[in-house]
Design goal:
Blueprint (H helix, E strand, L loop, with lengths): L1 H47 L28 H6 L2 H13 L4 E6 L4 E4 L10 H9 L5 E4 L4 E7 L3 E8 L1 H74 L9 H29 L7 E4 H18 L3 E6 L4 E4 L1 H18 L5 E9 L2 E8 L20 H6 L6 H11 L3 E7 L3 E9 L1
Parallel strand pairs: 7-9
Antiparallel strand pairs: 1-2, 1-5, 3-4, 4-5, 6-8, 9-10, 10-12, 11-12
Helix pairs in contact: 1-5, 5-6, 6-10, 7-8, 8-10
Amino acid sequence: MLKQYRQRFILLNLILVGAVLLGTFVVIGTAIYRNDYAELKKTMSAVLKPWNTSQPSSQEKKSPPQKSGDAEREPKKSDTAERKPQERSAASNRQQQDDNITTIFYDKSTDKISVLSETLSFDGDVQTIVHAIMAQQEDFGTLKDNRVIYYRQKTQNEYKIAVTDVSYIGSHMLNMIMILSGAYLLSMGLVLAISIRLSHLAAKPMEKAMDMERKFVADISHDLKTPITVILANNSIIRSNPALTVGDNMQWLDSTENAASDMMELISQMLTLSSLESGEQHIKKESVNLSSTAERCVLQLESIAYERNITIEDSIQEQVIIQSEEEYTRRICSSLIENALKYEPDNGKIDIKVYTSRKKAVFSVQNFGSVIDREDLPHIFDRFYRSDKTRNLHNGHGLGLPIIRQMTKLLDAHITVESSPANGTTFLVIFEL
């Protein structure tokens, strides 16, 4: 089950992160493409700029360059002879700066075409492409059928046209796509590795919950099995001697009643804890005298301490008033004192304190004769938790401390426990004044 959960977690992470990364890379690629397209327009404009004062006359016409396989085009001598040296130099410099862009002059009135580049940067018939460009409404754009990008400027009587193949941008976009694809695959690999790690971390609470559930079933089965076994055994004994009177069977009846009472106590504690954890309890805080509440709890339990010769020492500050709920406060104090008496050996000592510190009220119960092992401390407030030693030595179901902790939460109080061989075990409950 946990393996399937982790697999679904990893798959969901890959889908979500992959979709986000893909969308991000598409946006980046689109932005780069648009930027390259805009930069190409600037480049074409710069290619045409030197020809503002060096246009050939409308009567001059250069033979368009031939396609591959034809004879190499030679510019007419009249073209080059009649140009000024500065003009030829400017054209040569521009050609060297960008051989991927072809510069063309077109006289629309005479339908004459002059190609000012030594080589064409595109495939196809020049005249067909020029006529297609002149048919476009936009001065800058792409001829999809001819696979060329053009930029057109109008002078007095002529048009200056810069043309290049779509591969001018396509090659750069291909490199960009390869880079983005590599980055995407690398990112997804990292996401996969991180997701696998996170799946283990995310599954830990579930593993803990499942372990707690298994332990809960085992504990509740253990706590219910014993009294049920006792009840069935007693009932079998009574049924096997039908001639005996009730008085004769009183031993078995008392044993049955004690076992039933033990089950009733367990069920009652489970219902109480469930009610506290469900949030159904509505707490109305009021002023409660913690000092007098602690004193009453000590008086009620002094008889138990007397029977076992346990000394109860108290240091209770007078008139410590807290904002709490009186019944829950009494149950917290009484349960902690009773818990200390349960685990304190005979002839031992318990110290109870009530005092204020840093605008807080503190209720402290310390028993010196018992120590909680370090490995048990983190679990002391878990339901049904009992260490192996206490399970066999003391009665109880391991629900008392979880109930106390839940009550303190509802009262916005805080409970902690400290234990060491030198100082025994101390429970502290901190209330708001």
